[in-house]
Amino acid sequence: MNALIVIPARYNSQRLPGKPLLLVNGKPLLWWVWKNARRVGIPVVVATDDERIRKTATDFGARVVLTSRRHRSGTERVAEVARKILAKIIVNWQGDEPLLSPKLVNHLIKYLARHPREILVTAARKIFEPAVINDPAVVKVVLDKNNYALYFSRAAIPFKRDRKARPIYWKHLGVYVYRNQFLQKLLKTAPTQLEQIEKLEQLRVLENGWRIKVLPTGYDSIGVDTMDDFRQVCRLLR
Predict the structure, then answer these.
(1) ∠ CA 58-88-212 to the nearest 5 degrees?
(2) How far apart are CA 30 and CA 56, in angstroms?
(3) What is the pTM of this model?
(4) What is the spatial distance between Cα 24 and Cα 28, in angstroms, rounded to a whole number?
(5) CB atoms within 10 A of CB 198
(6) Nearest-angstrom CA–CA distance, 175 and 172
(7) Cα–Cα distance for residue pair 10/136, rounded to 1 Å
(8) Cα–Cα distance measured from residue 76 to residue 53, given in angstroms and rounded to the nearest whole number
(9) Mean pLDDT by 10 residues, the chain (238 residues)
C-alpha cells in the first residue's frame, strides 16, 4: 500500500509552548505519538520547522523533514512533506494525539484505498456526557445521512432547542487520511473565514465545496490541547 504517515510538530503552541517536547513519564510527547504511529506498519515522518524538535526526534530514531516556517497550519506542513516524499495516500496524524488507535488508522487507509471517489476520510465517535459535549476543546461534527461532514465546531452541535429532543453528538478524532493529489490542491487554497473563526483546519475543505467522509468508530482519543489534557495523558500512558 502506497501510504505515508506524517506527524506535524510545532513548538510554538499558544496554550502549551513546547508541547511536542513535554515529558510524559520520562519521554517526550512526540515520542509517544511516533511510537504509536509506527504500529500502523507504514513509513512515518515527523514534519517540523523547529531545530529542537528535529534534534529530539532524530535522537529517538524518527525520520524528520524540516519544513518552511511560513506554514499557517499543520495541514500545510503535511502537504509540503507529501510533495517531497511521494505517496498516494497521506495520513495527517497530529503531533498531540498519542492515544490514537493504529487499528483505526489502518481502517481509514484501507477505506480510502477501496473507495476511489473519496478524497479525505476521518473518524468520529458518539459522545453522551454533557461536560464533553459542551467542552470547546472537543471538536464536534454533524453528519448527513451518508456520513459526510456537514460542519465541524467547538460548540455543541446540533443545538437542542426542545427539551424532548434527543440529538446525537459526535466527537471528531484528530486524524485525516488524504489522497495526496487532493492534499496538494488544498495547499493552494487560502485560509477561509470559518476556519479562522473556529480555528479548525478541516473547515477549509468544506468551505471550498469538497466533502469529508466520516467513519463512525468506537475508538476514542485525547488530543493534548490543555494542561488538563496533558495530565490525563500522563495518567494513561505508562
Answers:
(1) 100
(2) 9
(3) 0.93
(4) 6
(5) 17
(6) 9
(7) 21
(8) 18
(9) 92 86 95 98 96 97 90 87 92 96 98 98 98 95 98 97 91 97 94 96 97 98 89 89
Rounded to whole angstroms, the Cα distance separating 151 from 169 reads 12
Q: What is the distance between the alpha carbons of residues 86 and 81, in angstroms, rounded to a whole number? A: 8
Give me the helices (H) in the chain, please: 29-38, 51-59, 74-84, 102-114, 130-133, 180-187, 193-198, 203-207, 227-236
Looking at residue 58, which CATH number applies to its domain?
3.90.550.10
Amino acid at 202: Q
Burial (Cβ within 10 Å: 0-12, 13-18, ≥19) of residue 231: exposed
Q: How far apart are CA 233 and CA 238, in angstroms?
A: 9
Domains identified in the chain, total number:
1
Cell numbers 515529558: residue: 23
Helix (H, G, I), strand (E, B) or coil at 24: strand
Range of the domain at 133: 3-236
Q: Which residues contact 79 (CB under 8 A, 6 or more apart)?
A: 90, 183, 184, 186, 187
User: Looking at the DSSP assignment, which residues form a beta bridge with residue 179?
Assistant: 89
Amino acid letter, 221? S
| Of residues 91, 96, 77, the one with CA closest to residue 33 | 96
Q: Which helix (H) or strand (E) holds 171?
A: strand 169-179
